[in-house]
Amino acid sequence: MPEKRSSVEISAAAAAAAVALAHAHGDELVGGTRRDLLDRGAALLADVLSGGGVLSMAAAWRFGAAHHYRGEYPNAMAWFQAALADPGPDPVDRARFLGGYASVLWAQGNAEDGRRVADEAMIAAQECGDDGAIGAAWVANGLVQAHAGDRTANLLAYERALAHAERAGDVVTVVRVRNNLGSRHVEAGRFQQALDELDHAVAVAEDHAVGLAGAMVSVNRAEALLGLGRLEEAVGEITIATDQFRSAEATHLLAFALLLEADAHRVRGNATRAHAKYLEALERAESAGNAQVLGPALAGLAETVVADDPTASHAHAKRALDQPHTVGDVIPLRAAGWIALGQGDLEAAEMWAARALSEAGRRDQLAELADAIELRALTRWAATGETRDPLGQLAEAADAWREVGSAIRTAVNRIVTARLSGDRGAEEAGRQALQALGVRADADRIAGPLHVLGAAAAPEVAIRTFGTFAVSVGGSPVPASEWPSRKSRQLVQVLAGRRGRAMSRAALAELLWPGVRDTSGRLSVALSTARAVLDPGRQHDADRYLASDRSNARLDPATVSIDIVEFERLAKAALEAARERSADAVPLLQAAASLHPAPFLADETADEWADEIRDDLLRLAVEVKRTLADRLVAAGSTEPAVGWLMSVIADDPYDEPSHHGLVRVLAGARRHGEARRAYRAYTARMAELEVEPATYDAIVG
C-alpha cells in the first residue's frame, strides 16, 4: 500500500507540476483561450496553498497573464500573490512576473501599488536584459502613466514596449501594445488614427495565434467606429469580440463587449436597450473587479434613466464618480453634468462642466472636451437666456467634432446651434441627418444635448416595437407601473403588430386568453384599460387612438405613430426608388435601414403570434440593407458598404452572398487583415450548414 503523502509534499509536487504545465503550454496558455489548462492550474494552485507552499514565479506570471487577458482579475491576483515569496526565481521570470503583477493592479484600479510594482519590474527587466521582459515592463509603465494622465510618457512607454516585443517575437504583447496604442487614440478622440493602428493589430492577429488579445482589438475597433458614427460596423466588431469571448468561455471579458453594445444602443437612441446592457456589463464588471468598465457602465446607466427615473439617475452618477478609474474620470464627470442640467440644477451643471473641461484638456481627450464645451454652452444659455457666448462655444465644439470625425455629434451640434439661433429649418435638417446615420428620435430620452433641448415635435401617441416595446404619450414615456394589467399591454403589442389593420375581437380574445371561453367581458376591460393609458386625461373620443366596435379592434395609424408602419412605408418606397435607379435611392435606403435597429419585440416575451411579423420585417430589413450595400459599393463608398454588409450578416449569419460581398469589399479596400477575418467567419458559418465554402481567391477574384 503506497505511503500517504503529507500536505507539504503534495504542495511541493503541485508547485513543480504547475511549472511544468506552464512551460509545456506557455504560448497557448498566455493567450487565455485554454479553459482546460486554467482548470488544471487552479487545482494545482489550490494544492500549493493548502499545504502552505510557495509557487514559482515562472508558473505565476504565465497563469496570471492568462487570467488577466480573460478579465479574471481576482484569479490573476491569486496566482501573483501565491508567488511573491518565491525565494530563487529566474531573473527573466521575476521581471515578467512583476510586469504582469503591475498590470493586474492597474486593471483593478490600484494605481499606487501598480506604479510601485511597475518601477520594480523595469529595474528587474533592465538587469536581466531580456527583450520580452523589458517589453512587459514598459507595458506596465505605460498603463500607470495612462492613469496619471501623462500622455507623453504613456506614448514613449508603449513605443519602447512595441520595439522590445517585436525583437523578442512576442506576438501577444505586440498585439496588446498595438491595441493599447489604438485605445490611446480612442481616448483622445482620434478615431481614424485609432483604426489605422488597430488595423496593424488585426493583421498580426490573423497571422499568429494571439488568443484573446485579438478579441480585445475588436473591442477597441468598435469604440473607434462608434466615435466616427459608423454604427453598423461597430456592432459587427462587437459581435466578433462577443463570439470569441464566448468561444473561450471568457465570460468576464463579456463586460467589455456589453459596455460597447450598450454604448452603441445609447448612441443610436435606444435608451431601454442601452440600460439593459449597461446593467449586464455592470454585473460582470463587479464580479471581476474590472475598474475599466465599472465607471463607464454606471455613467451609462445614469444617462439612460434620466427621463424615466431622475432619482436613480442621480444615484448612478454619484456611484460612477466614486469608482476607482484606470484612465481618468471624464466620462462620469460629463454624465453628471448633463444629468444636472437636464434636471435644472444649473449650479451643479456648471461645476461638473468646469471639472470635465479641465480633466479632458489635461488628458488631451478631444471628443470629451467637445462634449464638455457643449455642456458649458447649454448651461450658460439655460442660466441667462443669452445666445451670443453659447453660440461661440458651440462653434468651437463643432470644430472639434469635425476634427474627431464624428458625423453623429456634428449633426447634434448643428441641431443645438439651430435651436439657439431660432433656425427651425436647420434644426430639422440636422434631425434628418441623424436619422440617416441610424439615430432614433428617442435619443432625447438620454442625458445629453438632445435631452436638454427636448423633443422637436412629439406625436400624440408613439409606439415602438423594434427591440423593446415602449409607448410614449405627448413625448413622455409610459412607465411600466402605469400599465394596470399585463393583458392591456399585450393587447397594444398585438394591435401594433397588425399595423393599423383591424383584428376581430374573437381572434384577439383567443390570442390573449387561449382556450378560455366567454372572454368578451375581459376583452372589454383590457380595451378600456389600454385606452386609459393612451389617453390618460380622457381628452378625446374613445376611438381616437384605439378604435373598436362589436366585431373588430385596431390602432389608428393616423393618430398613433407606430415604428413598424413607418419602417414598412419607407422601406418599400426606398426599394422602389432603387429599382428605378432614382438619385434619392441611397438616402431613402439609409433612412429605412436606420428604422430597423432590432427585430420586432426582440426584448419581450412575445408568444408565437409575433414570429411571423418578426420574420417578415426582418426579411424586408435584410433586403433594404443588402440593396443599400450594393448601391454603395457601385458608388465606391466602401466604409458605409462594409457596415451595412456586416449588419445583414448579423441579421442572417448564413447569407452567403453578403459574406462574399464583405470579403470582396474589404480586400478591394486593402483591408486585408479584416478580409481574412471575415473569410474565416464565413467558412465557420458554412461549416455549420455542412456547405463547402468558396475559396478566398475565388471570392476576391
From TrEMBL:
Entry annotated with the keyword Transmembrane: no
SMART domains: BTAD (SM01043)
Residue ranges of every copy of the Bacterial transcriptional activator domain listed in the record: 562-700
Membrane-spanning residues: none
Keywords recorded for this protein, A-Z: TPR repeat
TPR repeat ranges, renumbered to this chain: 175-208
InterPro entries membership: AfsR-DnrI-RedD_regulator, BTAD, TAT_signal, TPR-like_helical_dom_sf, TPR_rpt, WH-like_DNA-bd_sf
Keyword Zinc attributed: no
Alphabetical list of PANTHER family matching this protein: TRANSCRIPTIONAL REGULATOR REDD-RELATED
Protein name stated in the entry: Bacterial transcriptional activator domain-containing protein
Organism: Nocardioides silvaticus
